[in-house]
Design goal:
This protein has about 200 residues and is α/β, with parallel strands linked by helices. The chain contains seven helices and six strands; from the N terminus they run E-H-H-E-H-E-H-H-H-E-H-E-E. It has helices spanning about 15, 35-45, 60-70, 95-105, 120, 125-145, 155-165, and strands at about 1-10, 55, 75-80, 150-155, 185-190, 195-200. Helix 6 crosses helix 7.
């Protein structure tokens, strides 16, 4: 049984500005002051010394969060592109208000979240594209690291995709993106039976 503890990165200015970050890796997509504090609080209340390793998205906001979590532990760290945030295609780096002015029907009312069909206008990744790369990652890591406990530091939509896969949710909107610096736990058996223990838990 392999255990995955999936952490969403700390807050960025992009998170608070109504900005489609997607795979943007420049400002305003770096940790802001509050995001650094969130990662430090998680470090102080979620002791990762039990784990065997960290595997991290290549985006700076995830790597910065991982560095804070790993302070004093020095777990081995790997970077895996399959943990990238969803790519919103042409919409990466654009503001939600501007996008809603043109593509209001793509957005879930009362939020900046999008319906699965958004990709037709944005030329971005489908929800299922992210779920498939997350599934491939999960299967590979279970085979490579059987019986290990692994800290994953990634992104909101990617975390949501781990949960969708674990419970085989048929509703693409079953899980909302979790809070910054929250933790989601799943386990995976050698037969690829997945169990979701908790989703978006905040440690403080």
């Amino acid at each position: 049984m392999t255990e995955f503890y999936i952490v969403r990165h700390g807050e960025t200015r992009g998170n608070t500005m109504g900005f489609k970050q997607g795979q943007v890796d420049a400002e305003p997509s770096q940790l802001d002051e509050n995001g650094i504090k969130q990662a430090q609080v998680l470090h102080d209340h979620f002791d990762i010394s039990f784990a065997d390793r960290l595997i991290v998205s290549p985006l700076t906001r995830a790597k910065a969060t991982a560095n804070i979590l790993n302070t004093g532990h020095d777990l081995p760290v790997e970077v895996d592109d399959r943990l990238l945030e969803i790519s919103y295609g042409d919409w990466d780096g654009q503001y939600d208000a501007d996008l809603k002015a043109k593509y209001l029907k793509c957005f879930i009312p009362g939020s900046n979240a999008v319906y699965p069909e958004y990709y037709k206008a944005a030329h971005g990744e489908k929800f299922t594209d992210v779920e498939e790369r997350v599934a491939e990652f999960t299967n590979d890591m279970q085979k490579k690291y059987p019986n290990q406990k692994i800290i994953i530091v990634t992104h909101g939509f990617t975390t949501r995709s781990f949960a969708q896969n674990a419970v085989k949710a048929t509703d693409p909107l079953a899980f909302k993106e979790p809070q910054n610096c929250s933790v989601t736990k799943i386990s995976v058996s050698p037969e690829n039976q997945q169990d979701l223990y908790y989703y978006g838990q905040v440690f403080k």
